[in-house]
Request: fold
Amino acid sequence: MQEILFFVLAAVAVLSALGMLLNKNPVYSVLLLIVTLFSIAGLYVLLNASFIAAVHLIVYAGAIMVLFLFVIMLLDIRADVEHINLKRLSRILALLATFIFLGETFLIIWMSLKGKAAFVGLGEGILGDVPSVGELLFTKYLLPFEIASVLLLVAIVGAIILAKRKLRPEPPAA
Amino acid sequence: MTLKEQLIARFGEDVTPEPSRVGDEVYIVHRNRIFEVCQYLKESTNPKYDFLMDLTAVDYLHTGTKPRFAVIYQLYSMSTHRRLRLKAPVPESDPILPTVVPLWGVANWFEREVWDMFGIKFKGHPDLRRLLMYDEFKGHPLRKDYPFNKRQPLVKNTEPYEDTEILQYLQRIKQDEATQRDSGPEYLRDFLKRRETFEGDRSTRSFLLNMGPSHPAMHGVIHILLELDGEYVRAADLGIGYLHRAFEKECEVVKWGQVFPYTDRLNYVSPLINNVAYAMAVEKLLGIEITERAKYIRVIMSELSRITDHLTCIAANAMELGAMTAFLYFIEAREELYNLIEEITGARLTISYVRIGGVKADFTPDFPERCTSAIKLVREKLKEVHKLLTRNRIFYDRMVGTGVIDKDTALHYGFTGPVLRSTGIDFDVRKANPYLVYDEFDFDVPYGEKGDNYDRYLCRMEEIEQSCRIVEQALAKLPGGPLNVDHEGKIIPAHVMADYGKFGKTHELLQMEAVTDPTLSGSNAEFYRKIYPDAKAVVLPRKEVTYSSIEGMMNHFMLVMEGVGIAPEPGEAYAAVEGANGELGFFVVSDGSDHAYRVRVRPPCFTLMSGFHKMIEGDQIADVIATFGTINMIAGELDR
Amino acid sequence: MQALAEAAGKFVFFIGLIVLNIAAILTWVERKQSAVMQDRIGANRATIFGIRMLGMFHMLADMLKLFTKEFFIPMGARRFVYLLAPMISLLFALVGFAAIPFGDTLILGGREIPLQIANVNIGILYIFAVLGMAVYGVVLGAWASNNNYALLGGLRASAQMLSYEVAIGVSLVGVIMVYQTVDLMEIARAQGQLLWGWLPQWGILLQPLGFLIFMTAGIAETKRIPFDAPEGESEIVGYFIEYSGMGFGMYFLTDFLETILIASLTVTFFLGGFQVPYLYADGFHFPWGQAILLPNIAVAALQFLSFLIKLIVLLFIMMAIRWTLPRFRYDQIMHLGWKILLPASLINILITAVVLTIIG
Reply:
């Protein structure tokens, strides 16, 4: 039962991710990405990490993808579908990310071929419920947690400054 | 120095006073100097005529007056409450004269309408498009040589608005960049300029939204083209005329007395006031004074109408903001008033109650009692809605600071009525130029200070209360006596004169002089001492008299026959009343026949809508609805 | 297999029989209640063989009308998304009810059946996820309609729902802190306990501020007056401007379902859920020592009835609010959400934390 579910969810995740990349209409891409997120959430549930699954859905599907849709709908996509003009820096970054991803995939396959687990499993129940996650966050991973919080705060402030830049009064002409 | 001396000293031959037999102050101005004369009157004369009340034209083709057209400017002095009429004759061969738009913003629409209706061009007008008729219309319908029953296909172009006008314009610009940029309508030029600056910025770009003509909040039918920056309105252009029924043209083909049903359909929320205004204009032209009782009845019915109008306005406004309950409370009160009106006039909406020389029917015996209870209900509902809305935080936040217009802009755009009063100017025709018997009542004119939606709302709420007061006082004072000026009346010597004439006792007339009540029309009262005896018989005799006596029947016959009947001497008159939305004026021209030669109505909504874009620019889409609601536009009188 | 049948049975009972019927009746209540409020007679024209039943048949007439009307797809609409959007909307409004406990345990034929369709141990988070998904139906429908008004409505809706989800989430943190769980069944059970031996430990008593914030944000989440800027029937007509027939019907139903969902959540978190004061698994135990013992089936029935009554009273209040207040403007909604409700709910957390620390 579990295995069937796993393969179905995995297949849906991979196929919809491919669809997202290959689709020309950004709105359909977003929709397919949401399908991917749902199937990954399903995988989390299979791993007994229902907390992660829920948070995953709330944050990514419930908030971030809505904002994606928001932005795409505001752009005049009918005219601009064809012109995806990447700057040089973005191209280099994209290339880099591809290499990292390929490297990780290779590592996983190679390790499992050698009979070792690539990553240590978290074991049953540890990520499953809220108290254990909370406890880990406030004890073992306190520093990363706080750093992440500060990082998010900085990002929020930065976003506000970028958005509000235009509202500042123009400097008087010399 | 009198005004006449000032004008003649400044402009010499180019300004000549025209004698008016009804007592209006009229000057004929050479068309090329009209702008200078207007500017001089607006800025330098004493008193200053600083307010453009109306601008229209008359086609004198059939009267033989040369030149063929005259453009009429009705000016008003806000400080002394005096009226002045300028006439600028325009020949058919070269129908063009300078624009006055730089002086008064409202002239923009007025001049567009004159161009639309008469084909008279205005040099220097920023945007001389058709206003009431559609762009494909051929000819100018109010010209006398345009047959009143001529039909034209209504719509040729079926493309959506945005896709034709603006896109075609963009296309043209692309083809010939340098020369075309500055042509085309002003609002499109501005739009493109703004759009260019956006694109340079690359971060945002505005988009266009057609609000109306089919939109739930555009009661009546009106089209607002909004240029939006997100939720904010950057610019707006209004399209009107969707309810144009050729009111002014139709008035020219019916007899004087048959115009009343058409006036019902102008401001259909307060039709009685329209009736009264038209009757007053014609009575002024005829030179008759109506009986005291009829005056009181007219006042009472006008004020009831004003209450229904304000109730409807506030109710609809609340409903559009989502407060459905307040809407129904007011509609309940209005329903009671409609029942009352129905009892007296026989109809709820299209009442045709007023007659030249009086009114159709007297009050029923239980009217005062029912009226008092109706007013009690109105006050009750007023209190309830005050509780529901006035200090409701959401309502307050929606209304305060939205749709703001300042004093100067309001005057510039010819605003009158509650919208002008909300800016802090207490101009009310009932106080400024008392007509009928308004000077006998004790009532206040509420005015605001900020000119926002909330002030307008409060002004209307208070005006309902003040109208209730007037009705109560009028009911208490209601005099007896005959209702109409007819051959039984002994009230007014002028009328007795007509009676004697009708019975063939003309020898007595020579010894008599008619004396009239000086309050009839404020500043123009002395005119009424001059009476034209042959125009006296204007009111249909009562049915009993018609059926039972030969005199009555002949009288009736003579009044309804084609070619005879009510026929004022040739002349022109302007009479104004305080409509629910502002000054409602009728300018009537007679050529001596039994048909009106020209009936021009000055609809209060028209000027309000011509300045509407000033009120919504910078606000949000949701505020457009709130502002539109407090304006109380009635498409019936806007589009006529 | 038996578990599946049990879940299906509960689904048919709770969602099919109770929730959908309440939604249908709510359309009638909305008309009739407003009629009473506004001195009108109200809906009473639809009759079957002369029987009026206070206009109840209008529900049937409405449904018939919506089902038989043409489902019109406007020119330029994205067909697939346009068809899908109302279904998404309806789906997420319905699945939320799976986590609502409408009674404690019912013992039938020796089986203990928890009266909750799906016993999700992360209940609150599940609810958040479902509420978060609800915006998709709106946004996609708006976008697919190819209409500027719909687009404006969709933008307003997405911004509004995102903002108020934050306020809802943060306002519930207080509840989680007080009851020490995110499981809705556990929260409902915890509210059966007594404070100082006599006061039922309902959420509204422990978290009064949280209750107000949750109710306000919840009404905003349902996009009804005074928070109906995305709809704004007299302004932009709304994200469903192009929908007709059953497409509109689904959005319409979603509106009422969301109202019920928010009301049942409020009942669960703050009004003691299915709890009747002093009623325990075996009957009433009053603080003054008296006890009335009841069979399990009667207890379950009483609990369910209590849930239903609380729900209906709350719905009635929400309707009264809907007919009393005018509509907020879009920016005022944002202002209220971010600058008033969110700080207030943060303060609520702080107060709760301080009090809990002091009490220990």
Q: What stands out?
A: The helical segments of chain A are 2-22, 26-46, 50-74, 77-80, 88-113, 130-138, 142-164. The first helix of chain A runs from residue 2 to 22. Chain A touches chain B at residues 166 (CB under 8 Å). Residues 6 and 43 of chain A are 7 Å apart (CA to CA).
